[in-house]
Amino acid sequence: MGVSPDSTAIEVEGLWKIFGPTAEKVLRCDDRFLEPAALREKTGCTAAVRDVSFTVRPGEVFVVMGLSGSGKSTLVRCLTRLIEPSAGVIRIGGEDVGQASPARLRDLRRHRVSMVFQHFGLLPHRRVIDNVGYGLEIQGVGRAARHARAGEILSLVGLDGHADAYPDQLSGGMQQRVGLARALAVDPEVMLFDEPFSALDPLIRRDMQAEVIRLHREVGKTMVFITHDLSEALKLGERIAIMRAGSIVQLGTPEELVGAPADDYVADFVRDVPRSHVLTLRWICRPPEPGEPLDGPELPASTVIKDAVAVASATSRPIRVVDEGEPAGVVDRVDLLTFLSGQDTDQQAVQATT
Amino acid sequence: MSATAVGTRSGLRVPGWAAPAGIAVLFVAGYLVFRGAGTLPHDDDAPQFLAITDLREWVDDNKNASPVFLYFINYIRLFVGAIFVALQSALHGLGWPGLIGLMAGLGWLAGGWRIGLLGAAGFASFGVLGVWESSVDTLALVGTAVLLSLVIGLPLGVWAGRSPRLRRALNPVLDIMQIMPTFAYLAPMVLFFQIGAPAGAIATMIYAIPPAIRITALAIEQVSPVAVEASASLGATSWQTLRKVHLPLARSTMTLAVNQTIMMALSMVVIANLISAPGLGSDIIRGLSRQNVGIMLPAGLAIVVMAVVLDRTTMAAAHRRAHERTARWRWPVAAGLVAGGVALTYALPPAFPGQWVLPMGGPVNDAVRWAEVNWYDATEAIKNVTSEALLNPLQGLLTSAPWWLVAAAVLLLAWWSSGIRPALTALGCLLAIALLGLWEHSMVTLTMVVVAVLAVLVIGLVLGVAAARSARYSAVQRPLLDAAQTMPSFVYLLPALALFGPTKFTAIFASVIYAAPPVIRLVEQGIRAVPHPVVEAALSAGSTPGQLLRKVQLPMARQAILLAANQGIVLTLAMVVLGALVGGGALGYDVVSGFSQRTDFGMGFAAGVAIVLLGIMLDRITQGADRRSSPHQRNSV
Ligand SMILES: Nc1ncnc2c1ncn2[C@@H]1O[C@H](COP(=O)(O)OP(=O)(O)OP(=O)(O)O)[C@@H](O)[C@H]1O
Ligand SMILES: [Mg+2]
């Protein structure tokens, strides 16, 4: 879908990060393509990010997911050079981050990109309001202005009345709201989240995910969201990149990942997802057979299959699927049943193997 | 190890103890054959000593011609001297009510009214003990040394905390500084800075600076990396992160660094009196040289009180919660206390009123005499048994054995316990001691250290195990250990001298009670650190408490016990040397006479070096044992 270069928020091209004493040397020879274990064996270096490229559109929620140790944190830290990348190009809002001088880089971090951390990273000796105002303080904003802005943001994240508390007096969920507020306070274009909710318990995590979705609607920031939790990824991500051993193995919409996993690794990831909750009619519609009646109910192609079942059960006619006004095909009861039963056999297979 | 090798090669079954036993037999035979030959008797006028004495004369003569002295060392001396004088006159200028008020105010700020009261009462007691003037001098000296230590140590510590490379470079230097017995600093100080307050302050500073650097570095390192990263992610410069994240988060641990620095300085400052720095130490040294406990006791008590007051005050400051809501009248009250004290200075006599001074000398000496008379049998028996059964035979053995036999024994012992490199270092130290011309005295000191360490270990194991097994006993013992560990080493000489009079045994006794508390504590911690599931498993298998101790707890606490032995050696060595002042003789005595008699300077200097070498040697013999199984363990502090 023709993304013009000036409308990308983040652009990453051929990014590498190799940890270790001989990183430079490894990068220059073919060793870098070795499997991680073999590489460590041979050179003592760890390739945490390997030849990663992607772009993020303005206002998009881009999710990176993968197992522990797959290089997600390293990748996201490379974006603002909290970890110095070994090779590759990173552009944020068109600016080449790799070439930025220390002052430009600070400027980028101060005004344009901010980050939310898994373990919050709050300063225990400061009150909540001063934690939220920290980024502004760093920029040299005066105390009154800082507190005014921090107060605003605190009510945005639902922490009214906690301004004078200290972080250790708050629950984990509230602490992460402070972390979120701190990142929001500087009004960045891009927000980076490194597994922000994995230290929280499931109920609070759900609240916080809803919070992020709400904030995204309200403030419309570009977000890069790291997680190892698939349901979180599916809930938040417009596009999801799946990482394995430092490389992106598949990048696509939730639907694409669930419907057409690129390899066994991805398939494994998405196996337990109820496909009918994620896939849409676009995935199963077919051209109408000659003589098939075309007067059944009409549904958009983006309808989730689960939701089409109710419609299909009310009529014996095939459902007409339309994509942005254009007819895309039809789906009848048999198609739906076949899909659902296929899913069933899939799940039985899973159960049989486990 | 070698036993099994031999066994497999010859096809014979050689039991594991055969090789050590064989070696032991060899040594005994060697001793019996060569006994008395190859000894290195002591000579007060050894050429090595004379050469060093001449060197000092030469330095003294050429001091004012050398640019190093003219433009550098002399300025340091003047600068440090100026700080001392400024501090001293400021403290005296406050007057005794003013100073008491100041301490009360600081105590109040640090820990509320309890600590404030402790500070006021503690400082007032200096006057009551009749040692106000010397106490203020000691305070000024401690203040100067601590100030210098912190001004140099804190920034260096912060830097080291952020730069692993600097940390690695500093570590061995600090290691050496910490195992050097306090005495060893003094001779070079005299060489460079002459005798007096500046030399005393600098020696004290060198002694007190390692904890300032180490603990600060640790404090900075421990700052949550996530907070640091968060700060960087918001675009903070590294200076901003240092000021707004590192320093506030490290604050309370850094206060601990200040606390440790003060305590180290306090224990050294008395020793600095040996090179004519003013203060309480001179009373103690006078008392020691006349064996007059009545003179020493007030000064000793004043030092203990000073240590307790400064310790509790800084500890209270360290433990204040990082964001405790500060009462609005915190500062006004502090200011009021200080102002009140200063106002009283004008109303009250300038010197501490004589009628408030508690006369102690007479009654104390009477008590000591009473104890001497009435406990004579008991103390004499302990002293004689230890001397006859342990001390004299061992000393006889070490001084009458040929030097090469002793060296070979040390080499093998260190090799067995720590490996070849430490063993070679230990051997090198021993040979250097021989070359310094101090073989015989070193062997005598070594005897004392070995006997003291054995006693310390026995006491440490018994009390440590007792504390680990009984929570109630541990609760009783802990405050005693705390108190004991805040006391400067000198203080331990007093009861020893009062009980046993000036002998070698007195020095050993003092060092045992000085070194025992940390050893007890380490043993207790080691046993307590044995994981609970392991203990539970052993109990569920039906172990008796004795079996549990022997088969599970002690073996698993091996690391901690070896560390305890190592600590015990370092502390004992420092104290045994100090024991020269209560009749310990040998190397310690050489050092002391080196300060008091110009002609003995060389011997004193060499003895200081020999003590350091002895320390390194013992450290290498024991340290390896706990390094071997856990190379990371010692990196922590
Ligand atoms: N500073 C470092 N030095 C050496 N290796 C590192 C460093 N940081 C990360 N690594 C290695 O890089 C790889 C990727 O680490 P990273 O933290 O990016 O993984 P992750 O996907 O974020 O995992 P998690 O889900 O556990 O946070 C790991 O193998 C890790 O051991
Ligand atoms: Mg991570």
TrEMBL record, chain A:
Gene Ontology terms: cellular component: membrane
Domain of life: Bacteria
Gene Ontology molecular functions: ATP binding; ATP hydrolysis activity
UniProt GO BP: glycine betaine transport; response to osmotic stress
InterPro entries the UniProt entry points to: AAA+_ATPase, ABC_osmolyte_uptake_ATP-bind, ABC_transporter-like_ATP-bd, ABC_transporter-like_CS, Gly-betaine_transp_ATP-bd, P-loop_NTPase
Matches recorded under PANTHER family: GLYCINE BETAINE/PROLINE BETAINE TRANSPORT SYSTEM ATP-BINDING PROTEIN PROV (PTHR43869), GLYCINE BETAINE_PROLINE BETAINE TRANSPORT SYSTEM ATP-BINDING PROTEIN PROV (PTHR43869:SF1)
Name of the protein described by the UniProt record: Glycine/betaine ABC transporter ATP-binding protein
UniProtKB/TrEMBL annotation, chain B:
GO cellular component: ATP-binding cassette (ABC) transporter complex
The keyword Transport appears for this protein: yes
Subcellular location, principal: membrane
Record's bilayer topology term: Multi-pass membrane protein
Gene3D superfamilies per UniProt: MetI-like
Keyword set, alphabetical order: Cell membrane, Membrane, Transmembrane, Transmembrane helix, Transport
Residue intervals of the ABC transmembrane type-1 domain: 135-314, 442-622
Keyword Electron transport: no
Xref: PANTHER family: GLYCINE BETAINE/PROLINE BETAINE TRANSPORT SYSTEM PERMEASE PROTEIN PROW (PTHR47737), GLYCINE BETAINE_PROLINE BETAINE TRANSPORT SYSTEM PERMEASE PROTEIN PROW (PTHR47737:SF1)
Family: Belongs to the binding-protein-dependent transport system permease family.
Protein name according to UniProt: Glycine/betaine ABC transporter permease
Source organism per UniProt: Nonomuraea cavernae
